[in-house]
Amino acid sequence: MALRKINYLLISCLSCSVLISIKSVNCELEIGECWSQPCLNGATCRDTVGAYVCACAPGFLGARCELDVGQCASRPCLHGGLCVDAGNRYSCDCSGSGYTGTHCETLAPPCWSEPCHNNATCEDSGDNYTCHCLPGYAGAQCESHVHQCASSPCQAGGQCVELEPFGRLAGLPPSFRHPGAPGYVCTCPPGFTGIHCEEDIDECSSHPCQNGGTCENLPGGYTCRCPLDGPSGTFYGGRDCSDVLLGCAHHPCLHQGTCVPHLRDGRHGFRCLCPPGHAGPVCEAVTTLAFSGHGFLRVASGPAAAPARGQACHVALRFQTDRPDALLLFRGDGDASVKLELLGGRLHLSARVRDGPGVLLSVPRDTSDGEWHAVEVAFAETVTLSLTGGACEEGCLAQAPSPFAGGRATCAFRSSFLGGFPAGTTSVALLGADDVPPAPPFEGCLQDVTIDGHRVTLESVSPGWSLNVGAGCARRGPCHGQPCGGRGRCAHLEPGRPCDCDPPHAGPGCLAEHVAGRFGHEGSTGYAAFPLEESNMENISFSMLVRTRRPSGLLLALQSGARRQVRVWIEHGRLAMLAPGSPGLAGKFAISDGHVHSVSLGIEPGKIELYQSSQSLGFIAAPAWKIQRGDVVYLGGLPDRQETQLNGGFFKGCIQDVRLNSQNLEFFPNSTGNDASLNPVLVNVTQGCPGDDMCKSKPCHNGGTCRSLWDDFSCSCPAHAAGKTCEEARWCELSPCPPGAQCQPVPRGFECVANAVFHGQSGAVVFRSNGNITRELTNITFGFRTRDANAMILHAEREPEFLDISIRDSRLFFQLQSGNSFYVLRLASPQPVSDGMWHEVTFAMADPLAQASGWRMEVDSRAPPVASAVAAGSLAFLKDDTDIHVGDRATGNTTGGLEGCLGTIEIGGIHLPYFGDARGSASRPQEEQFLRISARSVATGCLRLNACSSSPCLHGGDCEDAYSSYHCSCPLGWSGARCELRVDGCFPNPCIHGNCSAAGAAAAYLCRCEPGYAGANCEVETDHCQRHQCANGATCLSGIHGYACLCPGNFTGRFCRQSRLPATVCGNEQRNLTCYNGGNCTELPAGPACLCGEGFAGERCEEDVDECASGPCLHGGRCRDLRGRFQCLCGAAFAGERCELDLAGHLLPDDVLTATGSLTLVSLLLILLLAVAAAVAAANKRATQGSYSPSRQEREGSRVEMWSLVPPPALERLV
Fold first, then answer.
1. According to its UniProt record, which protein family does this protein belong to (predicted)?
2. What angle (nearest 5°) sits at the alpha carbon of residue 934, between those of residues 885 and 740?
3. Half-sphere exposure of 795 (CA within 13 A, CB side)
């Protein structure tokens, strides 16, 4: 029984060995020793033949890496750094050591420990550091919060709100919140904006006023001035002049009153603006009173008519008269009186109080000219008299303290009289006032009389209280109709001669004019001499009108015998005077302006006073002297040319209306019919006052048109020119710059400036001097913004001199070697500049006049300039043929080209132009220029601000600043330039090799891939060869549904695991034939043919006959088709060629089983040895085969077994 068990076990082992041998018939499979993952602690397992090797991670040893030796045992951390063992690796914690690095080997800068709080910027400075605090913080480490609202920074009533962590304002944009730097923000009231609400919003910019209304901007709002009569004849009103006003539709105002419509509470109405002389709701009342011949009008007054206590008493009226003396108004009682009257044509006001001081006010202007004049009198703490009209168009005013003290009601007089008193009475008898002299009656017209706010009309006067007073004004005095024509004053000097003429007018109605004398016409020189005939003239008045544009010239010389008594001339455009034995006198006001000026002298004993336009310029002391007969008055020059030059030279201009006391000194007496004038001596003095033709010399430049003025000219310049002679060209008026560029005037020319966009490796823009630069180049200015940590901005080189401006490690770097210096000057900005913000930069010599000096760098003017310790010369080498590379370098640029914005660069004030001369426009005319010599155009339009600062991307889109614009990367479900469009996930079909179906979420989709493709969008082609089973160095060819094996050499089968029989080539000229699988080529009558061996068929013996088709294997054995035969894979209890033997039955005797068991054990050992040897041989063969070689395949007759494509099977393993 025991022997039977042993035999059964041996049979079982033999069966297993048979199965193993059957599974790997060709020994092509290697046992994977790493399959069980024997290596520990993250080690890597490497499979070898019959064994494995573990590559241990750091810190582990052993055959299976099972021993942990510890990462920190070697103390790798330096300078007291703490070693942290993290399994199979370690790290060094350098906190508190003052060092940094992987092993704490590098001395850390002071800022490494991040000493600055609240997001402040730390700046290293040697062994110390400086903290640059954000707004809202202060202190050495920015640890203190500054309450910025304490200073009330918000204007216009804006509310100051401190941001986080002390406050938050709902609705603030994200730009107002930056963690750790709260600051403040001002919430502005409507109508204001700006950081501190300092900007008043111009509400008128939107043109809110309609229908021709004029908008007026107000603080925090606006108002519309609506037209009283629009173009269509319709009145408009309302806040925006949008309401049609109908109140004036029927023209209700009388006597040419102006109707002003309005709309109140939804009801239309109107208001009449009455002309002088009329009043009332529709201007129906006549308020003009005519006084003729001893007339008067009494107005009752008293407590009922008095204004409220504390208000001023007020009298207002308009009057018209040609009488110089007249009573206008009298008010009084027994204790006080007020009188308004005309005395000598001037307005007088007197106020008297019994036993007290009086007040007397006057306005020194003539009002008896027959014109209307307005007068107002107000009593309060002071008495005020004002006159308007005539010579007081802008108002004449006189004031004095009020004589009515003690709070007396100054308006409560019993009566007021206008124009005079009743006949046969005096003011004393009528009113009981003391010392009131009689006043002449008023003859003329009064208009719009109001006393203490009450308007006076004939209807308001009691019967019997007026005499010779009528409504309206039909009076026509001798001065009516302006008889003097505006050339003089109507003064009634004598009968038939009402006009006092203004110089130079004369005659009745001031129609005549004294003829002027022209001196120096068209470049001539001359003078006029007037011999005097009167004697013993001691008080002398001398006057004349002068017009000139020349800043020097003799005007007047008064000669007594051989002695010059007084001289007046023009010096530096101003009057000057000199008399013997006295210092000179110089005026303060210019007289050589081409206008007519009045010049006069007042000569008294011991004193000579000079006047210009009735204003005294001062006086000089002079010995007393008298004009005698035979003395001469010289005008414009002297007979002696040399002496004339000593007194300002000959006068050039016009002199007119010369008067000596009351006598006119006429240049041409017959022209005015004045026979009383002296006969003058005239030398080159012409009649009238014509001007020289100044346009003869063609003084206007640049296409200007000359227009002749009096002794002058005016140039009408074209749009591109300016100046007195159009000598200054305004080139920017011609719009010479291309779109996107701004024209900037420079001396004698213009430049087109813009911000250029650079895109990294797009190449440099090259400039060169035009060879005409003569100025010293001692500075460079430009602006830029970029996010590049390393970039080239400008480079120029002419050995040994060179200039280099770049960005290195985010800081601006400047290098210069110039002049005779052997050293390279270097400057670096203290702050980083690669933050995408705009920076203004200036490099300049500390001493521009020196041959060599230090240079300084200034960035944004926010920090002190950085100065160099090394001196260098100027940039004079750029004047010659030196190429200036901007944005990149020509060759050898290790820094990289600039990507960002770069403004126009100025070198010594001369621009580097990004543009050439625009076609069809003027070229740059200035002499000193840099020229762009590179051919490629420069992209402009770069924005100074971050294009994403306004958060243009919607719905969570990511904004990318492209310098001149922005780009939005939209989230799933959105598209468009600003991510404003919701999109369908399946549009436009994202599945490349598959069908799309929309998912539930917005823009979500699912791709169902076609066979042979995978990936989210079916974009990846499936490689079925990743885990192929092609053996014996065969090449795997992937297909859509699977893969096929391209067999090399003498192998065949689905996986190239079967050896071929040798092939035979035969044939003749008509037919070539190759017999495969050992087929013999035989010549038959029909031609060559292949005679196939057992198990093969086909014309070329290429078909393997399936011997398993008849099912030859018994007892459930599996049939395997081989070349020309088959093989049965039997179960554990069966054996034999066709599995016909039952090993578990009683078919064999015990001795046979014993012998068979012994024989089987020996056979099993031999099979195992053979299997190992076969595995080694197969491994060696794989090392040399498996790559595809077309030439070798052609030579060895390989082919792809395409009769069946198989999907990649599961990995086969030995059991």
1. Belongs to the Crumbs protein family.
2. 95
3. 19
Asked if residues 819 and 852 have their Cβ atoms less than 8 Å apart, the reply is yes
Neighbours of 1151 (CB within 10 A): 9
Tell me the C-alpha distance between 21 and 711, whole Å: 131
pLDDT at 33: 82
Distance, in Å, from the CA atom of 312 to the CA atom of 306, rounded to the nearest integer, reads 10
Task: Please tell me the total number of residues recorded for the chain in this structure.
Answer: 1215
Residue 812: the pLDDT is 94
CA distance 540 to 661: 6
Q: Residue 1100 to residues 44, 1096, 1104, 1108, 1121: CA-CA distances in angstroms?
A: 51, 9, 11, 22, 20
Mean pLDDT for the stretch of residues 247-273: 85
pLDDT at 856 over 60: yes
pLDDT at 171 over 50: no
Distance CA 635, CA 518 (A): 11
Residues 146, 130: contact at Cβ < 8 Å? no
Angstrom distance (rounded) from CA 228 to CA 226:
6
Does the pLDDT at position 507 exceed 50? yes
**pLDDT tens-digit series, residues 820-846:** 778 899 999 999 999 999 999 999 999
Query: Around Cβ 111, how many Cβ atoms within 10 Å?
Result: 17
Q: b/e for 538-577, b at 16 or more Cβ within 10 A?
A: eebebbbbbbbbbebbbbbbbbbeeebbbbbbbeebbbbb
189: preceding bond cis by omega (within 30 degrees): no
The pLDDT tens digits for 530-566 are 998 877 677 888 999 999 999 999 999 988 776 777 8
- Strand, helix or coil at 539? coil
Question: Residue 734's Cα: distance from chain center in Å?
Answer: 24
More confident residue, 88 or 147: 147
Average pLDDT, the chain: 80
Q: Which of 765, 544, 494 is nearest to 651 (CA)?
A: 544
Q: CA-CA distances (angstroms) from residue 778 to 307, 405, 847? A: 79, 78, 9
1150-1184 vs 2-23: helix axis angle to the nearest 10?
Answer: 20
pLDDT in tens, 1118-1141: 898 876 778 898 887 888 889 998
Strand-pairing partners, residue 619, are 609
**Integer angstrom CA distances of residue 31 from 34, 299, 1165:** 9, 140, 18
How far is residue 638's CA from residue 567's CA, in Å, rounded to a whole number? Answer: 11
**Among candidates 758, 727, 755, 729, which has minimal Cα distance to 741?**
755
Q: Average the pLDDT over 792-797 and give the result.
A: 93
> What H or E segment, with its residue span, contains residue 743?
strand 742-746
Reference 28, options 1127, 1033, 1043; nearest CA is 1033
592: exposed, middle or buried (Cβ count in 10 Å: 0-12, 13-18, 19+)? buried
Q: Output the CA–CA distances (angstroms, integers) from residue 663 to 21, 541, 658, 666, 1022, in the order listed.
A: 157, 10, 9, 9, 125
1158 has a pLDDT exceeding 80: no
Average pLDDT over residues 1057-1077: 73
| pLDDT score of 175 more than 70 | no
Mean pLDDT of all residues in 1079-1107? 80
31: helix, strand or coil: coil
1208 touches 16 (CB < 8 A): no
How many CB atoms sit inside 10 A of residue 213's CB? 22
Q: What is the pLDDT of residues 323-370, one digit of tens each?
A: 888 898 888 776 778 889 988 888 888 887 776 667 788 888 888 877
Query: What DSSP string describes 142-188?
Result: S-EEP-GGGG----TTPEEEE-TTS---TT--GGG--TT---EEEEP
Residue 1182, pLDDT > 60, answer no
